[in-house]
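Build the 3D complex.
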Amino acid sequence: MSSEQAATRILARYVVESRYEDIPQTMRHEAKRALLNWLGCAVGTAHHETIDRALAAVAPFAGSPQAALLGRSERLDILNAAFLNGMSSHVLDFDDTHEKAVHPSAPVYPALLALGEWRAMRGVDVLHAFVLGVEVECRVALSVFPEHYDRGWHITGTAGVFGAAAATGKLLGLSEQQMTWALGIAATQSSGLREMFGTMCKSFHPGQAARNGMSAALLAARDFTSSDQGIEGPRGFAHVMSTRFDPDIITRDLGRRFELASNMYKPYPCGLVVHAVIDGCLELRQIHGIRFADVERVELRVNPMVLELTGKLTPRNGLEGKFSVYHAAAVALVRGMAGEAQYSDEVVCDPEVVAVRERVHATSDASVTSYLEAYVKIVMRDGKVLERHVPHALGTLARPMSDADLEAKFRALVEPVLSPARTGELIAHCWEFDQLSDVGVLGRAATAA
Amino acid sequence: MSSEQAATRILARYVVESRYEDIPQTMRHEAKRALLNWLGCAVGTAHHETIDRALAAVAPFAGSPQAALLGRSERLDILNAAFLNGMSSHVLDFDDTHEKAVHPSAPVYPALLALGEWRAMRGVDVLHAFVLGVEVECRVALSVFPEHYDRGWHITGTAGVFGAAAATGKLLGLSEQQMTWALGIAATQSSGLREMFGTMCKSFHPGQAARNGMSAALLAARDFTSSDQGIEGPRGFAHVMSTRFDPDIITRDLGRRFELASNMYKPYPCGLVVHAVIDGCLELRQIHGIRFADVERVELRVNPMVLELTGKLTPRNGLEGKFSVYHAAAVALVRGMAGEAQYSDEVVCDPEVVAVRERVHATSDASVTSYLEAYVKIVMRDGKVLERHVPHALGTLARPMSDADLEAKFRALVEPVLSPARTGELIAHCWEFDQLSDVGVLGRAATAA
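Done.
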């Protein structure tokens, strides 16, 4: 079978035949790191108005309480649980990012955890299915990237639906033919427009991908048929939704190379372009015990894209703060942190933060080759000059967040929603996920009393 | 507001501000004809395996029994009811067809009837919303037609979701801003690939359009936000999913011209290209009281597209029979009918039908200008020659099916599923639909005991 003629079937066969023993230890651990990071985002944003409004809309039509709404007290049928948990985990844009294309976890984990909770499945099976789901969605995405994204498709939604279908199809034990159909039913639901960025529909996309992908697998499990060439056929996903398609990217080195190895986690809930500046400020503050009142001037030297995207000098609220490298530097120096709390309206307008912000100067410099790099210089009132070069922002593949970093991020997101004891329990469940005989314990522990 | 900048909002405003008094009497009656035709298709195919499999897949996750599964005994939440009823009405490809683009009713009526039944709404309001929903989906479709379809999109699904959103949004009483959001949420779910033709996913598309469109309206009713330019924005539906877009088609003559006037109904459950031949054979049989045993030879002269699409000389089963103009002519002469029953495996292989089929000859003739036209000549064993020119097939805009034709089609589809008494009751409900104080009576009457 050539990939040009049978990419869908080759991918389906790989997913169906894969055994947990085939997944390298490093990827198993990475899947747990992805779980911890994704779960924190979902629980932390469970009460956002995006979720409140969507829940109010779907609740009258939801089925029996099969799975947890993470971070809340409600339980819903697994399709709606996947939808809402997929949405909440992406609301802050704080979830994981594949080096090149999609946000891998938000369409896949919500579907898997809902199905796994309902059927009381083993952690090891969910972990295995997750690695495969990520592999499928990333390969489908990369086979049409960047043309597909440039055309206007929100690739996390359009490719994510394949990941959710493959992952839940694996958990359901689909045959090769059923898995091929599941990918086809996913293909014909692939959707999500970039026109929606800046509205609630952005996080709607991974939620829909989770729900529709699982629905594709459930239909295929009942022998609901689709084309066998949903991805590569002449009127299939790739040719209709992209101007370029490389089927070999889907099938090459399957089982030997894992896209999950290119997954990144964000330490700060704002655009990646300001992360290196935040790192530099936090590091200088800690190393030199800087008190912000002693700062005379801050000088940033950054890649031009940084000021292009986050050059707002005088942000007036939390949202604008996310587009201001000046606020990013100031709040890191004043508060010593850069979490979601440091991007509230109140903090952005705080007189102490504003006073430091007004002393931050930034220069575009094309010799700074990446927007993930930065030079930070702080001149103190006593004339002392402190400097820091950040060659790779924390969270990039060159300098990944440590397990401890991920735990700290998780605590900051989850403790305001659940108790510290529950938070600790969830962290333990994530690290021991492959030992769980019933993944439902995680969903139940993530539910507010 | 220019249509280039604000097609979505202009369309939303029109739908929100339209009053039933603004809908011409002819369109009100056409909406009832569309209802009768659509309902017959849905009930008639309620037990097809496509529906059995989909129902088995979604039932464990469905909500409370809010609306009827037409032609069956089950009741489901309104989103799942819309999904399954939308699917069943398209399984045989026997539903209505807009002159140029979509199958208008299958994505719109299932959503409206489910919502209307749940909320015990008035028939007149559902009828009004249907006319508007059809207007929206057809205008959106025509604004990107044929490039969008040629690219590989199944336009009944991709445009149908806008129709379902607009129609149910009207019933829900959305504000102009909410309706604009509903169309945006519809836009970002627009999907359905032509690669799926020939599989169960073809009828999945209008089912999904019905469900997702209604879901868009329900979300918008809770102020779930989307882009205000879901259709015309630079990364919106039209520019991402088509190579051509004419926004004026969406906004020109709104309220003065109705696309429902271009709706057609099929008398026979097979491709339009053989309809004129069937007409000619049925008419000659009736006029001359032909007994098929007396037929020496049948000569057809047709547009070249007819043999291109339905040139199968020796069909071996029902499905192949639908692609054989030879079978179409033979079965019409032998049985005097051309309904779904005449396309069973058994009838296609019936020795009497096969004997006549072998005496049918067809000639491609480019001077026959339309595939909806045909010349039929029958040479009898006694030497007599009978001829018939069918300039326009029954069911075309030039020669529409009469109300009585539609009733006969309805009876043939529905009586094998429900009782004759129930069938009559449903016909009466359709013609008096604008008098119903609660459209639920229709759903309940269409439910098997």
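Chain A touches chain B through 56 residues (CB under 8 Å).
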